[in-house]
Amino acid sequence: MTAQIAHSRRGGTRLLDTAEGVLVGLRRCGLDETFVDIIMTAKRHNVAPMSLAAALVAIAENDVTDGFDPDVVSAAKNAWGPLLSSGTCRRAPQSTSRNRSPS
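Now predict its structure.
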C-alpha cells in the first residue's frame, strides 16, 4: 500500500468519524446508529456515503458547499437540515486579560 493510499484511508476514516460525531451531538444517539443513518441516507438518495459524510461536516461547520455535488448537499439537508439549523456554535468565553492573577 502506498503512502498516498494510506493517507487517503485515514482521511476518509477521520471524515466519517467526524460526521458520526456531528450526528451523535445533534441526535443524542450512539455511534452505531449514526453510522447506519449515514449509510441508509446515502443509499436512499443514491449518493456515496463518504460524500454525504463530507457534506454533513461542511454544513455543520457552516462551510461553503459549492464544490459538492448538489444531490449530496440536498440529501444531507433533507436528512439532517432541521437538526443542523437549530444548532448554534458555542465557544467558550475568552478572558480579555491573560496575565491577570487570581484575586
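Helices lie at 3-27, 31-45, 49-60, 70-86.
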